[in-house]
Write a structure and sequence with these properties.
The chain is of the alpha+beta class and about 475 residues long. Helices cover about 35% and strands about 25% of the residues.
């Protein structure tokens, strides 16, 4: 080392040491910002009390850009505590609660922050938000450990979170961090229309204990023994499980992905497995590789057609008993959501079209890929075209937030069907190769993020984006 450099280092030793420590701190903070949040859950299902007891540890990094004094978590189970707040439309309550309304809900026992007891309160519509008061200001990129002890009592219903004689649906049952809009945590209401859930990807590890008479279905199965299961997954926006004493199981593999199917008879399990494997293969070829190591399709006493969760699809058990083809359609649609929701996330409260229109149109592409153009045309004529020809929807933009809808039928017609018509119009104008290429680009560039509508429009280029905006505003048709 030259003498001048040695002399400079001696004279400025303290300064150089401070610079080195600052650089190290920057590296550590950057790594903390890149590290995913982690949910570790110990859960036990008490079948007699119809209650799930949960000990949950959450390791979080403050990515909001501002110091935080509170952390807000969704406790969606409290939406089921009263009939008025239950996430179901009045005209559908007889299907959701065939035996009449029964209450459920969550009860918080204790909250700790970094190993010390912390104050908390319930807030939000229906007390569906758990606010944890931090004993310090959590700086940007700072980390914190929150431990939650709570129980979830399940009501007898046919909704996402509930119990029946045949199954236990633990969907949206675990506490999850509320989305942050840059100023505060969002307390999106658990409404009856759409899927009002917005969350970032995180690592999940779930250990479940339940009576040995039950079979547990969930993503990322690590181990299973009598009455005990371990599940683990990366980049999951939520974690859902279904339990049943009657499950039959079929399993296969496609493109290196393990696919499991749970149903109430072996024939149904195999039929659903075949559909799911075909869907993963078709969508993988179209959009890019499936984003998880496994996929689970699960029949459930769930009165809507289907519901997507990361690496898991919930399907109405009644569809397994029909011969009208709706089982395949439902499975294909929920499988498409593994690309458009689980893979590439979006704001399902403000922009529900962004994932639902893509999943609906992807389902039509599935039929076209497997059964030809005639199958696509037939489905388009039956499902999509009526929405574009409806006088009631003329001039109504596809981009509407969930709070704008008073009817599930209008939501379905506008978000799913007219949204799919918009994508079909883009495909016709851009050409099939450019259209599919745009979706592949959107998927690759936004995987495991919460993408904005502009991210999708940008993938279609200026011409496609301008055309899509006209549909979204209501200028077309």
């Amino acid at each position: 080392m030259p003498a001048k450099i040695r002399s400079f280092c001696k004279r400025h030793k303290a300064f150089l040491l401070s610079c080195a420590l600052f650089a190290l701190l920057c590296v550590l903070l950057a790594r903390a910002g890149q590290r995913p949040d982690r949910y570790a859950v110990q859960a036990e299902w008490d079948a007699q009390a119809r209650t799930l007891r949960v000990e949950q540890t959450v390791l979080l990094t403050n990515r909001t850009g501002a110091a935080l004094s509170v952390l807000d978590f969704h406790l969606y189970a409290n939406a089921f505590s009263q009939e008025e707040s239950a996430p179901v439309l009045p005209q559908e309550r007889k299907y959701a609660y065939p035996e009449g309304f029964s209450p459920g809900g969550a009860e918080v026992a204790a909250v700790q922050v970094n190993g010390r007891d912390a104050p908390w309160e319930l807030s939000g519509e229906g007390d569906t938000v758990l606010r944890v008061f931090l004993p310090f200001r959590l700086r940007p990129q700072g980390g914190v450990e929150v431990r939650l002890s709570y129980s979830v009592a399940l009501s007898d219903n046919r909704l996402r979170t509930g119990v029946s004689a045949r199954d236990v649906r633990l969907c949206n049952a675990f506490a999850t961090l509320c989305a942050h809009d840059g100023e505060s945590f969002r307390h999106d209401a658990y409404g009856a229309i759409g899927d009002p859930f917005v969350s970032a990807c995180a690592s999940w590890e779930v250990h479940l204990r339940a009576p040995t008479s039950l079979v547990a279905a969930g993503p990322g199965l690590v181990s299973a023994s009598e009455g005990s299961w371990t599940f683990s997954g990366e980049n999951l926006r939520d974690f859902a499980l279904v339990l049943s004493p009657d499950f039959c199981v079929a399993q296969g593999e496609v493109d290196g992905v393990t696919v499991r199917s749970f149903a109430f008879d072996q024939e149904g399990a195999q039929q659903a497995l075949d559909c799911a494997m075909r869907a993963l293969s078709v969508f993988g070829d179209l959009f890019g590789g499936y984003p998880f190591p496994d996929f689970t399709v699960c029949a459930a006493e769930f009165f809507p057609g289907g519901m997507e969760y990361p690496a898991l699809a919930l399907v109405n058990a009644g569809l397994y008993e029909t011969e009208n083809g709706m089982l395949e359609f439902a499975i294909a649609h929920e499988a498409a959501h593994q690309w458009w929701y689980a893979g590439v996330g979006s704001d399902q409260v403000l922009y529900p079209w962004q994932d639902e229109a893509l999943a609906e149109y992807s389902t039509l592409l599935y039929y076209e890929s497997l059964y030809g153009a005639q199958s696509f045309d037939s489905l388009y004529a039956a499902r999509i075209r009526p929405a574009t020809e409806s006088l009631a929807l003329q001039g109504v933009g596809v981009s509407q937030s969930l709070d704008r809808f008073e009817s599930g039928a209008v939501y379905d017609a506008l978000v799913y069907r007219k949204g799919a018509a918009m994508l079909h119009d883009l495909r016709a104008r851009l050409g099939n190769e450019a259209f599919v290429g745009a979706l592949r680009k959107y998927y690759a560039e936004n995987l495991f993020t919460v993408a904005a509508p502009g991210d999708l429009l940008a993938a279609f280029g200026p011409e496609g984006a301008d055309r899509a905006l006209r549909w979204l505003r209501g200028d077309l048709p």
